Amino acid sequence: MTLIVKKTSQLIAGMIFMYGIYVIVHGHLTPGGGFAGGVIVAGSLIFITLAYGGDFLKLIKEEAGTTIVESLATLMVISIAGAGFFFGTHIFFNNFLPKGVVGHLVSAGVLPLYNIFVGTEVAASIFIIFLSLIIFKEESPQ
Amino acid sequence: MELELAISIITGFMIIGALFAIHAKDLLSSVIACGIVGYSLVICFLLLKAPDLAIVQIVVDTITLIIMVAVVLDSSREEKYIKLDTQGYVNAATGVLLIGVLLWFFIASIQHLDVLGKSTLRMAGPYIEGAAQKTGSANLVTGVVFDFRGYDTMGEAVVLVTAVLGVLTILRLKGKK
To answer: Given CB atoms, is B65 within the 8 Å cutoff of chain A?
Structure first.
């Protein structure tokens, strides 16, 4: 891409990324949440990949890292759900942390943690589907 | 009444866009016409007061469009026509028959549904009453999705992981060393 596209994407991609993190973290207060915010974060990563092309970013390494992040985030969601079994009432998805005041940023027990890990997982999933469409075509024999 | 009129007009646009997507000669304009359907659905969600769904829909639709445009530009913009043989005619006849049967069931069952916006779902009331105190979450949707319906959300997350595993397995042509 041209210099204008590269510079503009440099300026904007960070803002999109921060907005995605805002939507994830405030998921229990304002509309949005893990799924929406995760896709916004993935969108910023896709944006910068499209602007700079595959050679700049060494995409093979990105693919390996994204796979690990995605699997770990899913594992964390399931282990938080399982941790509810050992605190308080013996049921899965038990909200074992203190709930706090409704409307504060740190409130609602474990719901923000679910939001953060589901957001990470969704971002990694969408981004890796996009990456796999680029990488595996390049390394395949013609 | 105005809401129903607005939603009817937007649904008409969606139908026109979907029909154009099927019949377009150029595959790129077909993909863009699919975008009409998605973004009209966003306006429908906003009119029906569902901002959570609208955010997810607009972002997912944009990223799907980007991926589809990349795929179309990479492969071919011309649509390939296949001449129908006997099996093709049998398949088409089965499809038309199935559409007729489904339409009949749809018309038969839609007469017993509620009017738009007035639901008689029994679980909706207890979810809304005091959900903010029960879950501690100001956003009711997050409270329902992650607390009352936690298993659904975990299933969605695992479905995404499975989909990514499938994509990586199918697209990887050269084995890992």
So the answer is: no
Beta bridge partners of B41: none
Q: How far apart are CA A45 and CA A14, in angstroms?
A: 9
- Quick one: DSSP state of residue B84? -
Q: What pLDDT sits at residue B75?
A: 78
Q: Is residue B40 part of a domain?
A: no
Q: Tell me the C-alpha to C-alpha distance, in Å, between residue B58 and each of A37, A97, B52, B89.
A: 12, 33, 10, 38
Q: List, for residues B77-106, the tens digit of each pLDDT value.
A: 777 777 778 888 898 899 999 999 999 999
As given in the structure block, the two tokens for residue A129 are 């589907």
Q: Do B55 and A36 touch (CB under 8 A)?
A: yes
Q: Are A46 and B63 in contact (CB under 8 A)?
A: yes
Q: What span, in angstroms and rounded, lies between the C-alpha atoms of B45 and B41?
A: 6
Q: Residue A46 is nearest to which of B66, B167, B173, comparing CB atoms?
A: B66
Q: How far is CA A139 from CA A55, A58, B66, in A?
A: 13, 13, 22
Residue B34 lies in a domain: no
Q: How many domains are contained in chain B?
A: 1
Q: With respect to residue B169, please indicate whether it lies within any of the assigned structural domains.
A: yes
Q: Per-residue pLDDT tens for A120-134?
A: 888 888 888 888 877
**Is B96 a domain residue?**
no
How high is the ipTM of this complex?
0.77
Domains of chain A, by residue range, sit at 3-139
User: Using CA atoms, how far apart are residues A60 and A68, in angstroms rounded to an integer?
Assistant: 13
Q: Does the CB of B143 have a partner CB in chain A at under 8 Å? A: yes
For residues B131-156, b (16+ Cβ closer than 10 Å) or e, as one string? bbeebbbbbebbbbbbbbebeebbee
Q: Determine the structural domain holding residue B168 and report its residue range.
A: 123-177
